């Protein structure tokens, strides 16, 4: 049985998704400010790591990393509604890439599993 | 010899251990993220030695050419000497050959290094006047076409370096340089891809180098250069550009002076964004200028559909 990451197409699929996903997030007025850094390459690299993780690919993130990485954003008001918006953009990105509904659901479930860590609670 | 060194400092590394883990164990602050070769948060640069090819997967061609690799998935088989982050490159002496004005406030400085100084057209170097007076300048010269290194220097009335250069330096004098650095060069561009060069002020310098390099390497796709300048006089090199545009069918030159009443008036970012709408998804972009301009262009181009890996940028910061 192949893993979700393999079924989605591995690193190639992540590469295809990262530009679309990051572009959607930057254009989304609800959450753009959390992603708005001058250094777009660094930000895109973080998006790529995130997508790899939620695709079920190789990533060694721990709950602690997720907490520390988002602490400053929680202080700026990051809450459940913003996580919802990210998940929505994630699902739309995958559908745009013709990923089947079953896989979209799996990816979103994986992404949703780090919600509490991201929101530091 | 140790298998791994961080600059002059030997770093202990076990067989099969990754560079990242060895650096962290030695107490070196090495940035990192996923630890799986994906996020590219851990890039290091080898000054000497060949990183294994798989540790360079996913990096840009410009990065590979300069020895960058992913520390978290690199278990070196042969000795690697890393460039310590934030440390300066080795220095060498250069002799000033000429200094002249391209515009009332832009000086062209040509120097000849006393030893080999390999670089790619579009990269930048650091001029070192003294330990507390160092500045980076982009190169307008081409390594195979020019026997000198050429920089275009904006003369700020309050700029310490530009004042030092224009007041204390004359042809024949010696100045220290370090480098080269920068990713803004013609690498990983398809020969048929539209090539869009956008710069403001002395941001023209690296673009001039990239433009000549592209033509030299046989770039076949259309090349469009947008140059933003305060006024007609500051749109320096306009004549050379116009001559080149007439001689080369695939090259177009578009000066944008801020005085909108003048011929070729307009904001360079707005002009380029409007004209390039149709090419966003497939063109390669080179952006050189102030932080605001580059950040705005990068964002707008990306949101409009340009691929992030097709946008190369050099930000000019102003230090006084």
Please explain how this structure is put together.
The complex is a heterodimer of chains A (121) and B (320). Chain A is mainly alpha-helical and 121 residues long. Chain A has a single domain, classed as Globin-like. Helix content of chain A is 73%, strand content 0%. Chain A has helices at residues 4-8, 10-27, 32-35, 40-54, 63-75, 80-96, 101-112, 115-118. The longest helix of chain A has 18 residues, at 10-27. The mean pLDDT of chain A is 89. With 320 residues, chain B is an alpha/beta fold. Chain B folds into 3 domains: 4-82, Beta-grasp domain (Ubiquitin-like (UB roll), Roll), CATH 3.10.20; 91-181, Beta Barrel (Elongation Factor Tu (Ef-tu), domain 3); 195-316, Rossmann fold (3-Layer(aba) Sandwich), CATH 3.40.50. Helices cover 20% and strands 31% of the residues of chain B. Chain B contains 7 helices and 16 strands. Chain B has helices at residues 19-25, 61-65, 160-168, 204-216, 238-247, 268-275, 291-303; strands at 4-6, 9-10, 43-48, 68-70, 80-82, 91-103, 106-113, 124-130, 133-138, 149-154, 174-181, 195-200, 223-229, 251-257, 284-290, 311-316. In chain B, the strands form 3 sheets. A 6-stranded antiparallel sheet of chain B has the order 9-8-11-6-7-10. A 5-stranded mixed sheet of chain B has the order 2-1-5-3-4. A 5-stranded parallel sheet of chain B has the order 14-13-12-15-16, sandwiched between helices. Chain B is globular and about 65 Å long. The N and C termini of chain B lie far apart (43 Å). Chain A binds chain B through residues 11, 14, 19, 22-23, 26-27, 38, 40-42, 44-46, 48-49, 52-53, 57-61, and chain B through 33-41, 58, 291, 295, 298-299, 302-303, 305, 307-308.
Give the end-to-end Cα distance of chain B, rounded to a whole number of Å. 43 Å
CATH architecture of chain A: Orthogonal Bundle
* Biggest sheet strand line-up of chain B: 9-8-11-6-7-10
Give the C-alpha Rg of chain A.
14 Å
Series of secondary-structure elements of chain B, N-terminal to C-terminal: EEHEHEEEEEEEHEEHEHEHEHE
Q: Helix content range of the residues of chain B, please?
A: 10-25%
Q: Which CATH C-level class of the largest domain in chain B is it?
A: Alpha Beta
Structural class of chain B: alpha/beta
- Describe the oligomeric state of these chains in a short phrase: heterodimer
Integer average pLDDT of chain B? 90
Kindly report the name of the CATH homologous superfamily of chain A.
Globins
Q: What's the shape of chain A?
A: globular
- Please, what is the CATH homologous superfamily of the largest domain in chain B? Nucleotide-binding domain of ferredoxin-NADP reductase (FNR) module
Low-confidence stretches of chain A: none
């Amino acid at each position: 049985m192949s893993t979700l990451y393999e079924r989605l197409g591995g690193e190639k699929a992540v590469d295809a998704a990262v530009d679309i996903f990051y572009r959607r997030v930057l254009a989304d007025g609800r959450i753009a400010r959390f992603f708005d850094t001058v250094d777009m390459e660094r930000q895109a690299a973080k998006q790529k790591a995130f997508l790899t993780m939620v695709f079920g690919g190789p990533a060694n993130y721990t709950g602690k990393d997720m907490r520390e990485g988002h602490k400053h954003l929680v202080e700026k008001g990051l809450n459940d509604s913003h996580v919802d918006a990210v998940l929505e953009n994630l699902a739309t990105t995958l559908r745009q890439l013709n990923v089947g509904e079953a896989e979209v659901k799996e990816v979103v479930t994986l992404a949703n599993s780090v919600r509490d860590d991201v929101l530091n609670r | 010899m140790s298998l791994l060194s961080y600059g002059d400092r030997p770093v202990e590394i076990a067989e099969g251990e990754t560079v990242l883990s060895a650096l962290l164990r030695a107490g070196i602050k090495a940035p990192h993220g996923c630890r799986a070769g994906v996020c590219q948060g851990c890039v290091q640069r080898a000054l000497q030695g060949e990183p294994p090819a798989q540790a360079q997967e996913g990096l840009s061609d410009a990065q590979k050419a300069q020895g960058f690799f992913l520390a978290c998935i690199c278990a070196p088989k042969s000795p690697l000497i890393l460039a310590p982050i934030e440390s300066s490159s080795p220095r060498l002496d250069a002799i000033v050959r000429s200094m002249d004005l391209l515009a009332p406030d832009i000086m062209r400085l040509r120097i000849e290094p006393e030893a080999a100084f390999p670089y790619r057209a579009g990269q930048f170097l650091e001029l070192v006047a003294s330990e507390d007076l160092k500045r980076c300048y982009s190169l307008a010269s081409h390594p195979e076409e020019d026997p000198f290194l050429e920089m275009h220097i904006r003369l700020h009335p309050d700029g310490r370096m530009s004042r030092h250069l224009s007041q204390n330096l004359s042809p024949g004098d010696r100045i220290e340089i370090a480098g080269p650095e920068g990713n803004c060069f013609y690498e990983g561009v398809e020969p048929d891809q539209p090539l869009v060069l956008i710069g403001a002020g002395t941001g023209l310098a690296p673009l001039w180098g990239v433009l000549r390099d592209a033509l030299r390497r046989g770039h076949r796709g259309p090349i469009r250069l947008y140059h933003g300048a305060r006024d007609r006089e500051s749109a320096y090199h306009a004549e050379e550009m116009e001559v080149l545009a007439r001689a080369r069918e695939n090259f177009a030159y578009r000066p944008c002076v801020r005085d909108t009443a003048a011929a070729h008036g307009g904001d360079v970012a707005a002009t380029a964004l409007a004209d390039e709408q149709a090419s966003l998804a497939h063109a390669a972009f080179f952006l050189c200028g102030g932080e605001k301009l580059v950040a705005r262009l990068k964002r707008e181009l990306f949101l409009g559909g340009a691929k992030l890996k097709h946008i190369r940028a050099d930000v000019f910061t102003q230090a006084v």
